[in-house]
Amino acid sequence: MKNILYMRLCMLQLLCTVVMLTFITGCKDDDDMRVPVIDEVRNYAASPDDTIITSLNDGQWVVLHGKNMTSASQVYFGSIPATFNRAFATDETLVVQVPPIPFLSVPRDKLNVITVVSKGGISTYEIIVTGTPIIVNVRNTDGEMIDRVFPEQQINIVGVNLSNATNIRFQGIAADLSTVVYTDSSTIVQVPANLSGGDASLVNTISYTTGIGTGNFSIRIVGPPIITSISHEIPQEGEAVYLYGYNFVSVESITFAGVTISSFEESEDGNSVKFVSPKLTESGTVTVVTPGGTFSTAFKVNDIGFINAGGLGILGNLEWGDYFSWQWWGGSVDLWSSDPNTTGWPPYNADYGIGTGQYITYKSVALKAGEGSDGNAIRLGEYAWVPSGNLNDSGDKWAFKFEINVTKPWNGGTLCIRTDKGDYLALYEPWKISAKESAAFTTDGWQTVTIPLSSFRKKDATLGDGKGDPITKVSDLLNIATGKTYLNLYLHNYGTKTTTSIEAAFDNFRVVKR
User: Fold this and answer.
1) Which among 64, 168, 271, 359 could bridge 175 via Cys, Cβ 3.0 to 4.6 Å?
2) What span, in angstroms and rounded, lies between the C-alpha atoms of 372 and 271?
3) For the chain, how are helix, strand and coil distributed in percent, rounded to 5?
4) Among residues 488, 445, 241, which one has the least CA distance to residue 338?
5) What angle do CA 357, 358, 364 make, to 5 degrees?
6) Which residues make beta-bridge pairs with 139?
């Protein structure tokens, strides 16, 4: 009898449990069928920082306030699903992190919409969704896309998340934000006038910063043109001339020794510009004008020093007169004329062009490792290099220059340049590509060689000749009593292999201010 009563009691308990579970499940299903409603969005922070927000950015934690939040099965920001834990939800709140938003691919009409989904339905809430600035392209004021910008140019930056910039930088140089004009998806700003002294790691980069983050965009940022060297500073009419340097982009004009160059060709990388030399009748600077600015050389071209006081800076022009300079007993050196009508000495040589006046050729046989000395050298006379007031200038303010013409391949063998003080040596190795690589060197006609006086160095105990400390001032190269010096140029083989022979023409040795 007791067993029967016990069994009935167990069955009654089981029935009650089933009824309760059914009731609970029914309630849960009823809860899931409710539609969640967002009334406001707040910062996910402790009071009093849990303020209502009207905009949010991707990655931010927020709290959705409203009702029926426990019924939410999915939350979307700008149609992108977010992850959240329902176990931490209450009927009035839901904590969620805004997912990464692919702003460029999300439709604009869905971007600023939060969507909450449950079994019972869907509700939405509009709020501004933003993120790190993204620049899509850059346009000029006519609305045309551009691939380069210039100082002081007014441009339109197009993209997303551009409102309220705290900083817009061009190669690290900040733009003036006081005149910036914003639209929904663009910013009109003026490129800074001076782009010098920027961040080397941000070359050709626009950096756009807001309170959320910084976005970078790569575009050619063209600063003022800079001439670092000229292929031939004393050209004859019809000869090709190259200006080397930076920012030769959209060149507007070139003036060469007082003559306006009407036709020229820019390289694609903007690092050189080519033209054919007109007939030159005077010396003068070289000026290049672009939308990025203007650059003029400190030195003059078509000038071997005659216009300087007393010929100062001429070390040898090889013309009859005070600055002939060549010490003829130096070695395998010959004097030639470029005039085909010459009848006397020096004779005409057709190998190195017409109309360049007199010049010398220097020859050296192939040199074995360690061979070569100033016993076979170009020797120049004693002349003043700089004004007496500039003897204490640093070596980088002045340069030694000469014209060279190499018609036969030259590979190996260093041209050593030494004053008669003998403590310092400059090395000219145009065939050298790297410490282990070389390539035969020739020139396309005459070229100008520029060697800063700071390139004259002492001997290093480990590295060797011309590899030690540089001069500290110009007078280190000169005789203190006179401010003058003799000059020798000769070939030496510092390599481990036999060099090629060399035959090259030289002219117009001079020192000029850089």
Assistant:
1) 168
2) 36
3) 15, 40, 45
4) 445
5) 135
6) 145, 156
CA dist 23 and 29 (Å) reads: 10
pLDDT digits (tens, 9 = 90+) for 285-331: 999 999 888 999 988 898 865 434 456 688 999 999 888 999 988 78
H or E element, residue 7:
helix 2-32
DSSP per residue over 114-129, as a string? EEEEETTEEEEEE-EE
Strands (E), 306-459: 314-316, 333-337, 358-364, 377-384, 398-406, 414-419, 425-428, 447-452
Whether the Cβ atoms of residue 437 and residue 425 lie closer than 8 Å to each other: no
Cis bond leading into 48, ω under 30°?
yes
- d(Cα 152, Cα 472) in Å, to the nearest integer? 40
Has this prediction a pTM greater than 0.90?
Answer: no
User: Counting Cβ atoms within 10 Å, is residue 418 exposed (0-12), middle (13-18) or buried (19+)?
Assistant: buried
d(CA 513, CA 285): 12
Phi, psi of 78 (to 5 degrees): 60, 35
How far is C-alpha 71 from the chain's CA centre?
57
Q: What is the C-alpha separation between 117 and 119, in angstroms, rounded? A: 7
Contact 118, 34 (CB under 8 A): yes
Angstrom distance (rounded) from CA 491 to CA 470: 21
